[in-house]
Amino acid sequence: MIKKFMVFAVTLLSTVGIISTVSTVDAYSEIGSITVALEDGVAGTSTEGVKFELIQVGNVVDGLYEYTEDFSDEKTDLNKVEKADEMEELAIRLNKIANENKITGISDITDNTGKIVFKELKVGIYLLRVTDYNEYEYVEPTLISIPTYDEDVQNSMNFDVTVIPKHTPFKVSVSKQDITTSKELPGAHLSLEDITTGKTVPVEEWISTDVPHMMKTLYANHVYRLTETIAPKGYKIAQSIQFKVEETGKIQEVIMYDELLPKKVKTGDNTDIAMYCCLGGLSFVLIGLAVFKKRKSEN
C-alpha cells in the first residue's frame, strides 16, 4: 500500500506547491492532519479570515485508492494519476461535482497568521477548496493525500502535513474604448468604488491610456462601480457600470465604451446672408436714385 501512496503523494508535491513535514511515521497510521498555511499576497490583501473546506473524495480499500460514494461517477483512476497537470484537472472536476451535488465537508477559517489545522483525518484523498476568500487571493482547488510521501526518508510517509497553496491575485482588466472602432481610448478620467456593502468605498482613480488598466487588488464576490468623470475631447461621458469579481484565476475583462459628441449642423452660410443684405441695400439705393432722377426730369 505504501507504494500506491508514494505515486499519488509525489504527484501532489508538485501540484500543491510546498508540503512540509510535521511528523513522519514508518508504520501505517489510521489518523492524520492537514495544516493550511497561507503566504502573503499582494499589498492590500489579508491571509486572515479565509474560509477553507476539506472534503474526502477517496478512501483506501485493499491497498488501492477508491472514490467515496459521492464522487463515484468520476472515471479517472486515482491509482494512475502521475502528472501534476492531471492532478490539477482532476481537482477542478471533483470541485465541480461537489458544487453541482451540494457535497460539503468540514470547514474552518484561517487565524491572524493565515493558518488552519484540520485534525483527526482518516487515511485517504481530500479536496481542499476556498469557500470564502474574504480579502485574500485566488486559490485553485487542491487534492491532498494522507499520508504523503516523505522525500527525506526512504519508504516513509507523513500523516501530518502542512500545505502552502499556490495563489494568484484576482486580475481585472479595465478597458476604455471607442464604441465605433473598439480601440483603446486614452485621456478618460476614471474612478472605481467598492459598493458591496451599500456604502461607497473609493478604490482607485486613473487616466486611461492606449492599453487596458490592470487591477490586482480587488476582492472576490465584491461589487464595484466604474465611473467616468471626464471624457476625452470630442466624446460624451459614459454611464457608470457595475461589475462583480468572480472566483477565478483568469483575467476578467471590463469594457466601458465612449460615444462621439454629435457634430453641430450649420443652418446656413453667413457669407451668403451678408451678400444678400448688401444686394438688398444696393437695390434700395438704385431705386431711390431712379425715383430722384424721374422727379427732377419732371420738374
Automatic annotation (TrEMBL):
Residue ranges of every copy of the SpaA-like prealbumin fold domain listed in the record: 171-258
Transmembrane segments: 273-292
Keyword tags: Membrane, Signal, Transmembrane, Transmembrane helix
Pfam families cross-referenced by the UniProt entry: SpaA
Domain of life: Bacteria
Leader sequence residues: 1-27
Name of the protein this chain belongs to: SpaA-like prealbumin fold domain-containing protein
Organism expressing this protein natively: Thomasclavelia cocleata
